[in-house]
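Each field is set out underneath.
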Amino acid sequence: PGGGRVGQRARGPVCVRAGGGSGKTRAVADRIACAVATGVGRPERIRAVTLTTRAAGELRGFRFRSHVHQG
């Protein structure tokens, strides 16, 4: 499960709504990494908002640099 249509949006804001355990946090992290890697997004202009402390911690802990360099 996960990603689905989240990664398909090329530009602009996105709102991800899905049930628990569906991969929302990972999908958002992947989208951020892809936007930065392709030059579509600049890290200082990206904001990710979560509704739980757990999801915020997951995003903080995600290794964007290693993910971006994987291509």
Summary: The chain has three helices and no strands. The radius of gyration is 12 Å.
